[in-house]
Every structure is written in structure tokens, then in C-alpha cells.
Amino acid sequence: MADNIIEMDVVTADGSEITVSESSYPDLYWAMRGAGQSFGIVTKFRYKIFDYPNGQDIFYAMFHFTEDKTEALFEHLNGLLNNVYVYHFYYFGTGRQASAYVKPIMDLGPISTSTSSFPYKEVSHRSFQASVGDPTCAAGTSTKDRYPVGLQIYNVSTNRKIYDLFEEMVTTFPALNTSFVQFEAFPMQAVKAVDPTSTAYAHRHDDILVALSTQYLQSAANAAAATKYGRRARQLFVEGAHPLRLNAYSNYASGDETLEQIYGYEPWRLEKLKSLKRKWDPEGRFRFFNPITGY
């Protein structure tokens, strides 16, 4: 999404309000697209938008699979690449247009299937139950605890281990039974077409985003259990990754990752971020969420 920002009105650490774009404060424009939470508060922005490719509706299908389909499901998804047992499928177009992509999933034998079409603006509610009034946003729950890993391909044997770990977690700690494992894959052609040096976002080579997302009533015991299993799941994903390293999507990052894991392993990228942090926020006023440190 950051690639489509044209300009932003930003309140900086000294209280100034400036307009940031490719031609106005270009250094801050670079940093805000990928590490913006460390540099300022956006009060207004201009954004590049696109026409719906096939009208205004999206075709949606949800499949429920039993655990014995784990390997077959992820082998199929590796072939597509463009929880574990609830698979949400979205297609910009009609059910007829999507049928060629839906049939191989149906052939795997889901225990139940539901399909519908809905306007694009409902995607957040339909996919993550993350709109106002949904359980994810309810008072007294926590959805902050995510342990993300960027991948280039699904490791089928790793995903079996993740299933077993998840089963252990919800059996041992029923308070975590509204948690889920996210396997997110989107068309990445446009993301990869952007010059990787043109923004602060570093993980353009990743095709998949996975994460154990823990959700629970807030208490010290529940938080400790969520942390324990979140870190174990993250380690399993990393051990099965190629290359073998942790790439953490900054919006999901749990906060215990290194700067390299969140903002990229290239030395020049981190030095540029630290240099801009010294320039725009020397006192570290913007430090609430995965901040740039050590500058």
C-alpha cells in the first residue's frame, strides 16, 4: 500500500506540519513508506487508486479441511503461489471467472464450503473479522501478539509441525482457543516491480506472510502462554524457510525482533534509517511501535 502514496501531510517531532512527497522532503518520503511510525504523524494523504478490474464485487469462497489434508493443501498452494484448515479465497470477478482456480481446491475434499460475492469495501470484515463491531476489535481481547515470518514458499513439513504445535497450545491453554495461524499470499507482481531501494520497505522478495496470531482475554498467565507459543511457532517457520532467516513484516512484528529482521539486512538501508532518525526525531519522540533505535 505504501507504494501508492503520492503525498502526505506529516506532523514531525518538533511540531511542524509539512507536506511530504517525491519532490518535497524526499528523504522523509522514502522513510515514511516502510518505517513511518518512527518519523511522524500523518494527518492527511493523497493516494493512487485503481478501477476495479471486474466490476465492484469480489467472489469469495471459504473451505474447511480436516487435518489429514494438510500436506495436500499446502502442496497445492505452493503450485499457485502467486486456518491452515480454513482457507479463504478471494477473486476480483465472478464465480464463473474464478472456477478454474476453485476446482483444484474442491478436488482436495473440504468438509464444508461456502461461497458468496460482496463489495470490495467488506474485505476486512469478511477476511479477518477486523471491522468495528467484530470480535477481533472487541474490548478486553488482545490481537497485538503476532509472530510473523516472510517466506518465499510453503514448507509442507513445517506446516504439519505448526498444526501439531497449535493443537498442543489450544489443548493445554483453552484461553487461547480463539487464536489462529495466518497464511497470507497475495499477487506480488506490482510489489516486485518497484525498485527495492526506492522506499524503506525491505522485504519485497517475500511471497507469503505467515504468523501465529494469539487472541485471548488479557491476563499475565495468558500473555505468557501466548508469548511462549508465538515464539515457538516463529522459530519453526524460520527453521523451514529458504533462505534460513527471519523477515518480520513491521505491521505484525511482535517487538522482540532486531532492526535487521524488521527493516532489512542491507547495512546501507539501516544506516539511512538511523541517519534520518537523527535528523527528524533526535529525541526519539516517535518510539511506540517497533521504532528505529541505536541512532
Q: Which segments are poorly predicted (pLDDT under 50) over 5 or more consecutive residues?
A: none
Q: Biggest sheet, in brief?
A: 3 strands, antiparallel
**Shape summary:** globular
Average predicted local confidence, pLDDT: 88
Oligomeric organization of the protein chains: single chain
Alpha-carbon distance between the two ends? 27 Å
Order of helices and strands: EEHEEHEHEHEEHEHEEHHH
Strand fraction equals: 15-25%
**Within the largest sheet, what's the order of strands?**
2-1-3
Give me the Rg, rounded: 20 Å
Count of individual beta strands? 11
- Enumerate how many helices there are, as a single number: 9
Classify the helix fraction into a percent range.
25-40%
Overall structural class, as computed from helix and strand content, comes to: alpha+beta
How would you describe the overall organization of this protein?
With 295 residues, this protein is α+β, with helices and mostly antiparallel strands. It has 9 helices and 11 strands. The strands form 4 sheets. The chain has a 3-stranded antiparallel sheet, covered by helices on one side. Helix 2 crosses helix 5 (156-172) and helix 5 (156-172) packs antiparallel against helix 7.
Compact description:
With 295 residues, the protein is an alpha+beta fold. It is built from nine helices and eleven strands.
